[in-house]
């Protein structure tokens, strides 16, 4: 007798952004082919998920993989190690950046990132276009062509000399996004305010890592957030503010949404769980926690937790930007006495993103399980044009599943993680709940501590127009 399904996941509790039900899942040809209580028929492989939660595989829509920074440093993970780390933490889709440096052709940059992913990617992936040089050719030809080809989101910066765009350039990019249907992600911090503050700190000899948060005050983030909201209103286009760090930017986002503007937002584990005080460590240790915008204060953490529940922040991603600590290609590229201005910006987080939110959010009653699914998978799928293929569990969607043991207790240690890093910002944290099995298009990639799946099995996702950018644009 031939098998009716390739895989059946039996006896689990299936949870989506909207529903929770005890049912079996039948998988055929990589897709969800049946959802039923006591599913009839046999399968080549059966997984018993008794006592487990079966959630959509996570989408990490903000991560930096094999990315060359403007200073020449390359992030430590490639598309295989990044995929392994993602899968081991319940994530089945990655959307990193194809990052343009000034003078580069955007299409050439995209081709280059495809070369890095092909033959290497373990999980499915797309690329956001990161634009630092919106030349007339980029605006008139390359960007529209690439959006048409399924690169339907892009990131721009208001800070970093090598990356930032002037307001006029931002307006030009927003205009293309509006007419072609792309989501613009904005890194919002006022560059001059940071430069002015930094100059004074350096002059006073305040160069240690703990001064990094001081150099990038919330007011700089608030001003740039307000400004890009105003620019988006002028052009009449949705935008998403990435890595929102605290109360002041949130206030601007709440104000914009109360006026009916389609302003979306993202936050990351580091803003919910770390504070600026965590950088106050002996010697150069604090460099491990240099990322931008920086971690703020406890009251900011509380406001961010509430913003997830209120729907003010829709996306929870890692901002995995892995620069090793003890490495001339990493945090110590300029030595152990380097001022904070010379330290690579970013921390790892692909693998710990979901367990941290599950434990600290769902486990502690700060968010419910449906919000967890929404902010870690479903909303990103909608906002970045892969819904309902990704980000949910329904008939016809890709069988990307994370089978969670909600009771297992894990203490996070660097040695247990699968990225290429030499530290984690969450060393020693105890979490309750971790995915026991991760499945991508019906194929088990992670099971009871073992990684499976060949490099190169991950597929490129040609993405549709983001839902908020569609003509009848469903707001989230
Ligand atoms: N912004 C990011 O999105 N990631 C790393 C560094 C930064 O400034
Ligand atoms: Zn950024
Ligand atoms: Zn980033």
Task: Describe the structure in your own words.
- The chain is α/β, with parallel strands linked by helices and 476 residues long.
- It has a domain at 57-385: TIM Barrel (Alpha-Beta Barrel), CATH 3.20.20.140.
- It has helices at 79-88, 106-117, 136-148, 167-180, 191-203, 212-215, 218-235, 247-258, 269-273, 298-310, 353-363, 369-383; strands at 5-15, 20-28, 31-36, 43-48, 53-56, 58-63, 91-99, 124-125, 128-130, 153-157, 183-187, 239-241, 263-267, 315-316, 401-411, 430-440, 443-447, 450-451.
- The strands form 2 sheets. Strands 1, 2, 3, 4, 5, 15, 16, 17 and 18 form a 9-stranded mixed sheet that branches. Strands 6, 7, 8, 9, 10, 11, 12, 13 and 14 form a 9-stranded parallel sheet that branches.
- The mean pLDDT is 97.
- The structure holds dihydropyrimidine-2,4(1H,3H)-dione and zinc ion (2 copies).
- Dihydropyrimidine-2,4(1H,3H)-dione binds next to loops.
- Residues 62, 64, 319, 321 line the site of one zinc ion.
Strand proportion, as a percent range, falls in 15-25%
- Spell the H/E element sequence: EEEEEEHEHEEHEHEHHHEHEHHEHHEEEE
What is the radius of gyration computed over CA atoms, rounded to a whole number of angstroms?
A: 21 Å
Give the overall silhouette.
Answer: globular
What is the CATH superfamily classification of the domain at 57-385?
A: Metal-dependent hydrolases
Q: Provide the CATH top-level class of the domain at 57-385.
A: Alpha Beta
Determine the structural class based on helices, strands and strand pairing. Answer: alpha/beta
Number of strands: 18
Stretches with pLDDT under 50, minimum 5 residues: none
- According to CATH, the fold-level topology of the domain at 57-385 is TIM Barrel
């Amino acid at each position: 007798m031939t098998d009716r399904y390739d895989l059946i996941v039996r006896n689990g509790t299936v949870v989506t952004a909207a529903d929770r039900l005890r049912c079996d899942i039948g998988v055929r040809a990589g897709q969800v082919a049946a959802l039923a209580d006591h599913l009839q028929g046999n399968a080549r492989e059966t997984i018993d998920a008794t006592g487990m939660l079966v959630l959509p595989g996570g989408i990490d829509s903000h991560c930096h993989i094999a990315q060359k920074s403007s200073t020449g440093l390359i992030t430590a993970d490639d598309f295989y190690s990044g995929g392994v780390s993602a899968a081991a933490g319940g994530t089945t889709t990655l959307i990193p950046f194809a990052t343009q440096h000034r003078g580069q052709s955007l299409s050439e940059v995209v081709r280059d990132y495809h070369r890095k992913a092909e033959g290497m990617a373990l999980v499915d992936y797309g690329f956001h276009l990161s634009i630092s040089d919106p030349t007339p050719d980029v605006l008139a030809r390359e960007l529209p062509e690439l959006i048409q080809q399924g690169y339907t989101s892009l990131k721009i910066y208001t800070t970093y000399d090598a990356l930032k765009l002037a307001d006029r350039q931002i307006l030009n990019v927003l205009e293309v996004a509006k007419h072609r249907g792309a989501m613009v992600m904005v890194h919002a911090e006022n560059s001059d305010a940071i430069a002015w503050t930094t100059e004074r700190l350096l002059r006073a000899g305040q160069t240690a890592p703990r001064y990094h948060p001081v150099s990038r005050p919330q007011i700089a983030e608030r001003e740039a957030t307000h400004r890009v909201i105003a620019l988006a209103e002028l052009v009449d286009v949705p935008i998403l503010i990435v890595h929102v760090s605290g109360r002041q930017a949130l206030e601007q986002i709440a104000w914009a949404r109360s006026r009916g503007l389609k302003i979306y937002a993202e936050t990351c584990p580091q803003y919910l769980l770390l504070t600026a005080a965590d950088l106050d460590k002996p010697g150069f240790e604090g460099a491990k926690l240099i990322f931008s915008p920086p971690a703020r204060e406890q009251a900011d953490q509380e406001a961010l937790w509430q913003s997830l529940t209120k729907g003010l922040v829709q996306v929870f991603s890692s901002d995995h930007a892995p620069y090793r600590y003890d490495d001339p290609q990493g945090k110590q590229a300029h030595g152990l006495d380097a001022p904070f201005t010379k330290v690579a910006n970013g921390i790892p987080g692909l693998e710990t993103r979901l367990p941290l939110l599950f434990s600290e959010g769902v486990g502690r009653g700060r968010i419910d399980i449906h919000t967890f699914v929404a902010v870690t998978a479903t909303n990103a799928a909608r906002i970045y044009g892969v819904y309902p293929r990704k980000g949910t569990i329904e008939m016809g969607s890709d069988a990307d599943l994370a089978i969670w043991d909600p009771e297992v207790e894990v203490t996070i240690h660097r040695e247990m993680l699968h990225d290429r890093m030499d530290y984690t910002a969450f060393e020693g944290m105890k979490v309750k709940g971790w995915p026991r099995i991760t499945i991508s298009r019906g194929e088990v990639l992670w099971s009871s501590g073992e990684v499976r799946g060949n490099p190169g099995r991950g597929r490129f996702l040609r993405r549709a127009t983001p839902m908020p950018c569609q003509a009848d644009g469903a707001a989230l």
